[in-house]
Design goal:
Layout lengths: L16 H7 L7 H8 L6 H14 L3 E6 L2 E6 L8
């Protein structure tokens, strides 16, 4: 059975890129840590932060460093990735 549509309608998606960019540091951080610093609410905030960070990486504003099994993110201003 289909749910009735919300009287307010669907909420538009927020652009989280500015908040994620603000939360980035020169130290490698996980998406969960960045989401917490950015104040991204909700249960799937790490996933939302990861999507925003991937967009920032495509724009050249952030880059990812893969360590063991976790991806960590840094500002693009730090051109020398650390292992």
């Amino acid at each position: 059975m289909l749910k009735a549509p919300s009287p307010q309608g669907a909420r538009p998606r927020q652009d989280l890129r500015p908040r994620a960019l603000e939360a980035l540091t020169s130290e490698p951080s996980t998406a969960s840590e960045i989401a917490e610093r950015a104040g991204i609410p909700g249960r799937e905030r790490a996933l939302q932060a990861t999507r925003a960070l991937e967009q920032l990486e495509a724009e050249g504003l952030a880059f990812s460093v893969i360590r063991r099994t976790r991806t960590r993110w840094r500002t693009a201003g730090d051109a020398s990735p650390q292992a």
